[in-house]
Write a structure and sequence with these properties.
Number of strands: 2
Radius of gyration: 16 Å
Strand content: 5-15%
Oligomer: single chain
Strand order of the largest sheet: 1-2
Number of helices: 4
Order of helices and strands: HHEHEH
Helix content: 40-55%
Length: 107
């Protein structure tokens, strides 16, 4: 999670893109800490199979401990791999290096 409103808005934009790309699949916002709903609450409220997709850049404590615990009671819920670490993310970051903060690169 993040306390930053900018960070929260960025995650919500990503969720909106996911919803637009796969309208038949429910995309539910949930957070591992700081914000609500938390993952255990969202998983408990959801009926039917689900995939928890961690929007995390590493395989730290949340991925190894918190998220498996959040879905432990649900055989129909799967934990996907986190976004990172992944070489593609490093390429994205490296591609943005040298771009002044607050300015977007031109594609």
């Amino acid at each position: 999670g993040t306390r930053s409103e900018v960070g929260t808005a960025a995650v919500r934009r990503l969720l909106d893109v996911m919803r637009a790309q796969r309208p038949a699949i429910p995309v539910i916002e949930a957070w591992v800490d700081v914000r609500d709903p938390d993952v255990p609450t969202a998983v408990a409220a959801h009926r039917g199979p689900a995939v928890v997709a961690p929007l995390l850049l590493s395989t730290g404590y949340h991925v190894r401990v918190d998220l498996p615990a959040a879905i432990a009671e649900r055989a129909d819920v799967t934990l996907a791999t986190p976004l990172g670490p992944d070489g593609a993310l490093a390429d994205v970051v490296a591609g943005g290096c040298g771009t002044p903060a607050g300015r977007q690169r031109q594609s």
